[in-house]
Design a protein that fits this description.
This protein is an alpha+beta fold. The chain has helices spanning 2-29, 44-55, 74-83, 88-96, 113-123, 128-141, 156-172, 184-205, 218-225, 280-283, 301-311; strands at residues 66-71, 99-106, 209-213, 231-240, 284-286.
Length: 312
């Protein structure tokens, strides 16, 4: 029995060391790319795996208030580079990178609460007490005002709402712990940043180079990418292959897809169920906001064969 326990401990330690070593290698290899090899496409299966890992990103109340546009169109990249990006570096990177990941933060997250609540209830993970306060707590703490009018675009009611909440929490803070109040833009941008970091590390794990960019005219970018007023753009991440790399990138074999329903099984332990996630086609778009991302819907063998026959 003692030998069996010792063997299990050693196996667990070896597994922990292996995970730590792998993650350290990813962290140490991530740098901001200065230039990208132009006109080099990333394989679709690599993109799918990167996006699947990105989807596991945590968010406040699991509201998942971030969408991402995977911009690969050379024409739209060129337009974005010329008319919205600031500085020569960002302009060159936008043109040359294989893709630009544009993160869109929802400034009206209350509109997704009902959908998330239903997903959480069906998953059976949350306790009844959590579900009972989810709607009220999330609406209060995200800093969004129910009377916010984005048509006026001044956000005055949100500022008043946040001020009143902050006054209330500040008054009670000396008596008991209270949450730090922030406006909805700060809350949503923070969640988008978490997702962007998950995306960046996932891309790095596949040998891709990245560069986070915040130097752009958001108003112009939203017009070019057809992003509704409801969303802001906290940042973009240029992604591709490092310019002039001595060693070419060799991608790993992807023989299985990521299980989004369960966490990875630990040695001798049961799998833990993950909190539910939106469908990938709800979160990730292609080239412009709302446009389906084609690589999420790869053609079947029958469709491919039919296409070949038609071409013939």
């Amino acid at each position: 029995l003692r030998c069996s326990k010792s063997s299990a401990t050693e196996a667990a330690k070896a597994n922990a060391n292996s995970k730590l070593k792998s993650f350290r290698q990813i962290v140490q290899s991530r740098v901001s790319a200065r230039r990208f090899e132009p006109n080099v496409a990333v394989p679709d299966d690599v993109w799918r795996d990167v996006l699947q890992m990105t989807l596991t990103s945590p968010s406040g109340f699991n509201l998942q208030p971030t969408h991402m546009i995977l911009l690969r169109s050379p024409q739209i990249k060129s337009t974005l580079s010329k008319h919205a990006m600031l500085g020569f570096g960002n302009q060159y990177r936008t043109n040359d990178a294989s893709a630009i990941a544009v993160f869109c933060a929802d400034l009206e997250p209350s509109k997704r609460i009902d959908r998330i609540f239903d997903m959480e209830r069906k998953s059976g993970i949350r306790e009844d007490g959590y579900l009972a306060v989810l709607r009220v707590a999330s609406s209060f703490l995200t800093g969004e005002s129910s009377t916010l009018s984005h048509n006026n675009s001044d956000g005055a009611s949100t500022h008043v709402s946040t001020f009143l909440k902050r006054t209330f929490t500040d008054a009670l803070s000396p008596v008991q712990p209270m949450p730090t109040m922030e406006n909805v833009e700060s809350w949503s941008y923070k969640n988008a940043g978490i997702m962007a970091q998950m995306y960046t590390m996932s891309a790095t794990a596949h040998g891709l180079s990245t560069c986070m960019m915040e130097g752009f005219d958001a108003r112009r970018a939203k017009e070019i990418l057809r992003i509704p007023d409801r969303y802001g753009i906290p940042l973009m991440v240029a992604t591709g292959y490092d310019y002039g790399a001595v060693t070419p990138v060799v991608h790993a074999d992807l023989d299985e897809s990521l299980n989004l329903e369960y966490e990875e099984e630990s040695d001798g332990e049961e799998k833990c169920k993950r909190t539910p996630r939106l469908e990938m086609n709800e979160v990730f778009f292609g080239d412009t906001f709302g446009k389906p991302l084609d690589l999420l819907h790869p053609p079947t063998i029958q469709q491919s064969s039919a296409g070949v026959e038609e071409a013939a």
